[in-house]
Amino acid sequence: MFQGRPAEDHENDGHRRHQRPLQAQRQKGADKPDNCSEVPRMADVLIRAGHDQMMSALRLNAHGRTEEAIDRHRPPTQSSPASSTDRQCAAPREIATLGVMNFFALVLLAVIQGVTELLPVSSSAHVIMAERLMGLDPGAPDMTFLLVMLHTGTMGAVLVYFWPRWRQLLVADPRFSFLKMVVLATAWTGVLGLGLKVVIEKLMLERIGGYAHAEVEQLFRNLPLIGLSVFAVGLVILMVEQHEASAGHTQVNGRQATLIGIVQALCLPFRGFSRSGATISTALRCGVSRSLAEDFSFALAVLVTPPVVALELQRLWHAQTEAVVGGMGMVTGLSGLIPGVVGMALSFGAGLVALHWLSAVLEQGRWRYFGYYCLVASAVVLLGHFVWGL
Q: What does the alpha-carbon distance between residue 244 and residue 285 come to, in Å, rounded to a whole number?
């Protein structure tokens, strides 16, 4: 009834019994859900791939939104309406950073920022277009640090150029009405600017746009919005040139300062709507002389720029903190400091040249030329987005 079995069969049975636990263990691991269709089975490869993807997501996080940057690397799901919006605003995965930026790119960005920051042609539109063409991410922490340094250089140029003129205004006015009006306009800008920031972040971006942690800086990557803003400020400059009031005011009064401050607040969240172009045009429309309109506009810039720079540094600090927590180390170290200092010096020199040119254009009554330029620049920005795919 029981027949003997060859010895080799007994050996095969032992081998099969030894393999069953291993096969069951492999099968158990294979039954685990996985989002990717083809994933290597080796554990070390899987861990390495996930780590690389996480680090890439953190590097792309430009505004402290680590969660959303990571979500962009996950497969799309049917119940994630915000993911499509994020993908439209997502930066390219392969981007250059300041650590590998060549000297030519640094000089180009510094000159563009230094010249256009002080001319009514929107420095943001020019810088963002240049960064896109060079493969740079405008919202990356190292680029944020560079822009802070460039702003510092241009403000140094403003102080050096305008201080003799401001000193004459202060000496000739014992009541300090010029300084009081500058403070009044800046106060209106601060109050209205903060209100716009809350409305844009909480209502437009979070509730309507579906962002989880919205920041107004997300608008800075929207090229169509920037192009339309440049177009709008071009129209404002041309309309003021045609309907400029007679320059009968040798001082800025409270009504004019309030209106200029409100207009300046509208420029803050919308990159492309030139601050200097809008404020000088508003002053000219109110009957302020051309020289005084220029003095008043850039005096406002001196008071507004430090809080904006402080905000950018705060965003950079948050990015640094999240990078350290994520195990990435410092995202902007000595490799970002050296280009920043060089760029600050270059933007200072370019800013001085731009201010001399701006004063000459204003005094010669050629303000409308900046309006024509803004219309052309807006067309280039829109073509760059819709035709060239920037």
A: 5
Check whether 11 has a pLDDT greater than 90: no
11 located within any domain? no
- pLDDT bin (cut points 50, 70, 90) of residue 164 is very high
Q: What is the pLDDT of residues 59-87, one digit of tens each?
A: 434 344 434 443 444 444 444 444 434 43
Phi, psi values for residue 106, rounded to 5°: -65, -45
84 domain-assigned: no
Using CA atoms, how far apart are residues 202 and 215, in angstroms rounded to an integer? 9
Reported confidence tier of residue 50, pLDDT bands at 50, 70, 90: very low
Residue from 123, 102, 166 nearest 350 by CA? 123
- The string of DSSP codes covering 187-204 is HHHHHHHHHHHHIIIIII
Phi, psi angle pair for 136, to nearest 5°: -95, 150
Residue labelled with tokens 């073509």: 383
Cβ contacts of 192 within 8 Å, gap of 6 or more: 261, 262, 265, 266
How far apart, in whole angstroms, are the C-alpha atoms of residue 113 and residue 344?
Answer: 10
What DSSP string runs through 38-104? S--S-HHHHHHHHHHHHHHHHHH--SS-HHHHHHTTSPP-TT-HHHHHHHHHPPPSS-B-GGG--HH
pTM of the complete model = 0.69
Range of the domain at 313: 98-386
Distances (CA, A) of 241 to 97, 244, 367: 42, 5, 7
21 within a domain of the structure (yes/no): no
Structural contact between residues 142 and 331, judged by C-beta atoms closer than 8 angstroms: yes
Distance (Å, rounded) from C-alpha 312 to C-alpha 331?
15
Of 36, 41, 37, which Cα lies nearest the Cα of 53? 36
Q: Is residue 66 part of a domain?
A: no
Q: Name 249's bridge partners.
A: 288
CA angle 200, 205, 210 (to 5 degrees): 160
Q: Tokens 């540094």 belong to which residue?
A: 313
Counted domains in the chain: 1
For tokens 């402080």, the residue is 310
- What is 348-361 written as a DSSP string? HHHHHHHHHHHHHH
User: Environment class of residue 294 by beta-carbon count within 10 Å: exposed (0-12), middle (13-18) or buried (19+)?
Assistant: buried
Q: Is residue 267 within 8 Å of 278, Cβ to Cβ?
A: yes
List CB contacts of 329: < 8 A, sequence separation 6 or more: 323
